[in-house]
Structure prediction request, 135 residues.
Amino acid sequence: MATPTDPETLVFLASRRLESAASPEYTMTSAMKHDPEHYDRAYMLCRGMGSPHSQCTGLPVDTYITPQHPLYKEFRSELLSGMDCMTEHRDESKCHHFTEGLYKKLTWKAPEPTTTQKAATFLGKLVGIKPQPTS
Prediction:
């Protein structure tokens, strides 16, 4: 799987809105929330209560955040391993196996039924017996 590096190709691929597990949740775009005044408000509230500047610098993180894409929850270890590899090596050719493995998991398709399974299904339809699922 070749990875495009040309900026025009990347923009084109991003604009195609491919349907896969890795595509963005466009329906959740309206749910995105960001409070740019969170830290200013929290700092002022802290100072207003009489706390010194040194106490008010370690403010809590804004808890009203945009929900993450489910991809991060489902494939956390693969994504983090790929990020760690790129952070360490900064070379796509050395970390390509992470992205390729993730791609294979995201575009998984059920295997084609074998000839034996096809024959069992056909004979089952003739006789009226449902075939047992194989694992």
